[in-house]
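Fig. S4 source data, part A: sequence.
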Amino acid sequence: MKRTIVLSVVPLLLSLLAVGCSRDKVLTEGLRYCESVLAYDGGLLIANFGSDELNPLNSEGKGYILYYDGSGMRTFIPADGTLSAPKGMNVTDGWLTVADVNKLVAFSLCDRSAEPVVIPMPEGEVFVNHIVTVDDMLLVSVTNTGNIYALDIDSVTGPDAASLELYTNVPGANGMLFDRGTLYVASYSPEGVPTGQNVIYRIADMANPVAEPVSSRTGQYDGLAMYGGKLYFTDWTDGFVGCMDVATGDVVRVETAAPLAGPAEIDVWDGRLCVPDLAGSAVHLIGL
């Protein structure tokens, strides 16, 4: 009897292990230079440059956004000339706002036939990277200057260009995350070589936006996500994906199915860390 019970349990354990392993997956279908992902409506939005060559400042108008529902891809925003190098995405008040080179582009999710709202950024702000929601405003990072802008958003008219104003400056401000009243900012050197300034920062008082390093670890930081009380991040240095204890600054590496050439803007969806490999045109789903 005991032997029968043991033998019956073994297949069950093997099947459970197989299910756990299957949560790690690499998406490639329809992707071309995918820079960011965003959990949305039970699935995952994936922003793609679609350009001939990898150029984050291109103006080819071939950018598009796909939606992955767990079983397949479909087009969410087509390559119709509106987007060129779509990066960070944000959904607030029924609007999908996308960072695209030197502008913001907002699409109504309530009226998909409506023309997108285009908001040019001030002169010289050519590497608009990421967008987060803080209370009733959007914060927008610009990597080449380190400036972070704030603007209002309305559920009917979308982001308000007239309200755009400088909020603060963080060296190489790239990916951002707002979690439990704290703004985290990933720093990336536009020159391509990180210095002591290129760390992960946090702003604890949004009314007095002073950035302080979370740790002294330097890198070419891009994406940020919080899960289980841990801060996950991507670092273009050696294609690193990491998990940081924000209390101690300790970091452990997150293993991926294959080496990454350019880990970019991340998010957590379906209990998995979703990591776009910009240069590799793939999205890695990693079970957490």
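Fig. S4 source data, part B ends here. Helices lie at 2-22.
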